[in-house]
C-alpha cells in the first residue's frame, strides 16, 4: 500500500448542496495526493450510450471536487474501464482496480449481473463500490429476499437507485389508483428479474383490492404468443403485467392486440427501452416503470445538465448520469470524512476506512437526499411511470416509493 501524504491546508470550498459550482481544473493550491475513483461501465457495445453517460458524469463530479478543492490536499482522478456489459469483464476490471493502490472507490457498474461478479473481489479488498444503476435485490438483500429473509451480501456495496423490490408495488399502485385497472393477467419470463417483479406486483395489486385473473410463464427467447394471447383475452383482464425484458415483451404486446386484447401491457425498466417501441408497432398505451426519474425532474437535475453540457462531453448524460454523479460524490465525501478523522491525512488503510465512511455519508445531491440504509440501499427510492405516446416513451408520473 502506498504511503499517503497530504499538503493542502485550505478549507473545502463552497458549501450547501454537493456539486455546487462549475467544473474545471484543480484550481490553485498545493494538492499533492492523487486519489483515483474507478468507473466500471459498458463503454462499447449496445449499452455504451448509457455507460458513456455514467463515465462522463463521474468525471464531472471529480472535476467539480477538484475545482472547489473539496478535500484539501487531494486531487481526484477517474479511471474508467469497459466491462462490455459482461460479468467476466467486470470481474477482470475489479481485479485491475484492486491492483491500483490509488483507487479508493469504484462507481458502477450498469448491469446487475456484472455487479454480482465484482461483489466478492471488491469485498475481499475492502474497496467500496457505489452503483448508479443496479436493481437486483440480491445484491443487498441476499438470495432469500423474496421469502422475507434479508441478508447483506457485501459491506462494501452501495447504490444510489431504487431496486426491483420497489418496482412491482409502484406499478401496482399506478395501475390500480391512477389507471383504474382492477383485473390483471400476470406473465413473467422465468428469470430471477422477471419473477421478482411479478412477485412484488402481485402482492401490491391484491393488497389494494385488485384481482389477478390469470398467470403464465414464457421463455425469454419465445416469440410466438398466440395461445397466451387467447388466454389473456378470455380472462377478461383489463391489463397485463409482464416481468422480463423488451425483447420478449414487444412481440407479446403486439400479438395481444392482434388477438383482440386491446389492453395495456405494463413492465419494469427491462422494457423501458427505445427498442420496445421500434420493434412493436402496437405499443401505444403500454406502460413501464423506470428506476429513478429523468434528470430534468430531479432536485438538482437542471443545474447538473447545464454543467454537464458546458463541460462539452460528446455523449448525453443518459438515464443514470445524475445517479452516477451522486455515486461519485458519495465516494468523494467519504474520502473527505476519512481525511478529517485522521488529522487531515489519509491512513495506510484508507480503502477500508473509505468503505466504512460511505455507509455514513448524507448530503443533498443532484438526485435529492443521498444516504444509505443498513443494507447499502439508497434511502431516496424514486421511480417513474412511462407510457408510450405517439410512438415514444413519455414520463407520466414520478415519485418516491411510498405505500
Can you give me a brief rundown of this structure?
With 403 residues, the chain is α/β, with parallel strands linked by helices. It has helices at 48-68, 87-99, 112-124, 138-141, 164-178, 192-208, 226-235, 246-258, 274-278, 301-310, 321-341, 350-358; strands at 33-41, 74-82, 103-107, 128-131, 157-159, 183-188, 211-217, 239-243, 265-267, 287-291, 363-365, 368-370, 382-389, 392-400.
Average residue-wise pLDDT = 91
Radius of gyration over all CA atoms, rounded: 22 Å
SSE series: EHEHEHEHEHEHEHEHEHEHHHEEEE
Structural class, judged by helices and strands?
A: alpha/beta
What's the arrangement of strands in the largest beta sheet? 7-6-8-9-10-13-14
Per DSSP, the total helix count is 12
Shape: elongated
Low-confidence stretches: 8-31
What does this structure look like?
This protein is α/β, with parallel strands linked by helices and 403 residues long. 37% of the residues lie in helices and 20% in strands. The chain is built from twelve helices and 14 strands. The chain has helices spanning 48-68, 87-99, 112-124, 138-141, 164-178, 192-208, 226-235, 246-258, 274-278, 301-310, 321-341, 350-358; strands at 33-41, 74-82, 103-107, 128-131, 157-159, 183-188, 211-217, 239-243, 265-267, 287-291, 363-365, 368-370, 382-389, 392-400. The strands form three sheets. It has a seven-stranded mixed beta sheet, with helices on both faces. It has a five-stranded parallel beta sheet with strand order 2-1-3-4-5. Helix 1 (48-68) links the parallel strand 1 (33-41) and strand 2. The termini are far apart. The model is unreliable at 8-31 (pLDDT under 50).
Amino acid at each position: 500500500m502506498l504511503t499517503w501524504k497530504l499538503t493542502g491546508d485550505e478549507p473545502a470550498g463552497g458549501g450547501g448542496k454537493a456539486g455546487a459550482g462549475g467544473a474545471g481544473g484543480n484550481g490553485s493550491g498545493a494538492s499533492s495526493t492523487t486519489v483515483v475513483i474507478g468507473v466500471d461501465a459498458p463503454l462499447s457495445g449496445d449499452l455504451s450510450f448509457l455507460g458513456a453517460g455514467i463515465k462522463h458524469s463521474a468525471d464531472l463530479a471529480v472535476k467539480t471536487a477538484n475545482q472547489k478543492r473539496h478535500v484539501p490536499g487531494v486531487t481526484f482522478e477517474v479511471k474508467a474501464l469497459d466491462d462490455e456489459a459482461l460479468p467476466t469483464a467486470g470481474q477482470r476490471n475489479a481485479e485491475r482496480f484492486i491492483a491500483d493502490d490509488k483507487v479508493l472507490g469504484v462507481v458502477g457498474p450498469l448491469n446487475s449481473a456484472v455487479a454480482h461478479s465484482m461483489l466478492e473481489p471488491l469485498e475481499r479488498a475492502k474497496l467500496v463500490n457505489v452503483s448508479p444503476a443496479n436493481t437486483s435485490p440480491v445484491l443487498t438483500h441476499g438470495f432469500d429476499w423474496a421469502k422475507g429473509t434479508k441478508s447483506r451480501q457485501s459491506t462494501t456495496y452501495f447504490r444510489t437507485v431504487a431496486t426491483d423490490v420497489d418496482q412491482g408495488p409502484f406499478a401496482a399502485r399506478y395501475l390500480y389508483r391512477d389507471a383504474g385497472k382492477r383485473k390483471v393477467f400476470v406473465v413473467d419470463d422465468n428469470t430471477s428479474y422477471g419473477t421478482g417483479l411479478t412477485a412484488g406486483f402481485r402482492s401490491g395489486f391484491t393488497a389494494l383490492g385488485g384481482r389477478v385473473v390469470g398467470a403464465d410463464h414464457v421463455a425469454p427467447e419465445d416469440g410466438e404468443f398466440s395461445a397466451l394471447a387467447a388466454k389473456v383475452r378470455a380472462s377478461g383482464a383489463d391489463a397485463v403485467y409482464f416481468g422480463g425484458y423488451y425483447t420478449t415483451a414487444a412481440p407479446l404486446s403486439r400479438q395481444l392486440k392482434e388477438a383482440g386484447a386491446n389492453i395495456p401491457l405494463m413492465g419494469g425498466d427491462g422494457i423501458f427501452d427505445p427498442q420496445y417501441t421500434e420493434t412493436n408497432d402496437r405499443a401505444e398505451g403500454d406502460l413501464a416503470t423506470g428506476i429513478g426519474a429523468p434528470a430534468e425532474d430531479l432536485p438538482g437535475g437542471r443545474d447538473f445538465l447545464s454543467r454537464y453540457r458546458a463541460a462539452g462531453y460528446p455523449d448525453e448524460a443518459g438515464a443514470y448520469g445524475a445517479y452516477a454523479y451522486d455515486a461519485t460524490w458519495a465516494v468523494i465525501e467519504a474520502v473527505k470524512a476519512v481525511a478529517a478523522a485522521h488529522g487531515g491525512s489519509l491512513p495506510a488503510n484508507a480503502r477500508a476506512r473509505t468503505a466504512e465512511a460511505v455507509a455514513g455519508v448524507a448530503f443533498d445531491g443532484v438526485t435529492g437526499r443521498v444516504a444509505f440504509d443498513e443494507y447499502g440501499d439508497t434511502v431516496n427510492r424514486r421511480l417513474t411511470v412511462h407510457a408510450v405516446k405517439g410512438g415514444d416513451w413519455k414520463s407520466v408520473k414520478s415519485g418516491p416509493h411510498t405505500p
